[in-house]
Amino acid sequence: MTRTKDQFLVFGSPAIEEAEIQELVASMKTGWLGTGPKVMQFEGDFCAYKGAKHAIAVNSCTAALHLSLLAADLQPGDEVITTPLTFCATVNAIIHAGGTPVLADVDAATQNIDPTQVAAKISPRTKAIIPVHFAGRPCDMDTLCDLVHRHQLVLIEDCAHAIETAYKGQPAGTFGDFGCFSFYVTKNITTGEGGMILPRTQAAADRIKILALHGMSQDAWKRFSDKGYNHYQVVEAGFKYNMMDLQAAIGIHQLQRVTRYWQRRQEIWQQYNQAFADLPIQLPLPPAANTVHGYHLYTLLVDEAQAGLGRDAFLSAMHQQQIGTGVHYLSIPEHPYYQERLAGSLRIIPRL
Ligand SMILES: *Cc1c(COP(=O)(O)O)cnc(C)c1O
Hints:
With about 350 residues, the chain is α/β, with parallel strands linked by helices. Helices cover about 35% and strands about 10% of the residues. The protein has a seven-stranded mixed β-sheet. A three-stranded antiparallel β-sheet has the order 7-6-10, with no helix packed on it. Helix 2 (about 35-50) runs parallel beside helix 8, helix 3 (about 60-70) runs parallel beside helix 4 and helix 3 packs across helix 7 (about 200-210). The longest helix is centred in the C-terminal third of the chain and has 18 residues, at about 260-275. The radius of gyration is 21 Å and the shape is globular. The site of pyridoxal-5'-phosphate has 14 residues, from helix 3 and helix 4.
């Protein structure tokens, strides 16, 4: 679509095409709106795309992270190490699962969690690590996986930016025990709201299926099918995190275009690199050798001393130019709730 200069350019607006509109309408006409055959198809397609064995579709990446932590048997007070440069959902999921978030700082150049900082934060209470492949750039998985094995930790990858991301030929989300994906509106592909979990084992997949639908025994997923009435039994107190067929109807077609969209973002990324090369701002690092960058966010670092204007002045100027932007992110220690709640475990000094 072409845009004239007086139209506001919305940040991260999705590309919705005719195929998903038709699929969605077809779902509505059948009357099967909830979890059904389209969710099953989307899970199968996502497994095939990722080369994974198990995939469970849920209604957000936040739900995916929460269920992964629960399926990892997180106990109250267990520590989970993650990055301060992430969306609040990563940390909230740890808190809701009963854990204590511990922040390990990022490498300033890659903006990804620094494995040296992770190693320094490992304690006898550490249960899991949640790296975020920031902006779609893979974390240093060799070093992180080595730490995970040496300390027998659970590895949960937050792949909200990283559907296409790969590290040394291996797809993001398949390195650890769980990979969590987002299909929120601004993400690389969308279902409106939606998420996916790739659990490594059958046992974890079974547990997540139960937790995602009220804690009802697995057959409950089929209880409204035409195969005859199925009683459901509740085996634990679960959640309402299942994906709807209405969402999967969109996702099935978005997933078919995942590489086309990725190529288009790569082209735009390269245009930006050329256009901004001489500006007094820090551009994203080029992708590391032997990796696939997901090109989710094109991150500019605006340093007031160097650029002559600060971040917020830059944001206002962009807005005046009718260009939408996002701040990724106000770091976790900059939010009042975490300052209060995590006072003991935040050793990073907020500088708002
Ligand atoms: C978007 C995002 C999430 C949450 O995804 P939802 O699908 O909106 O729940 C989690 N982590 C990161 C890094 C994100 O960017």
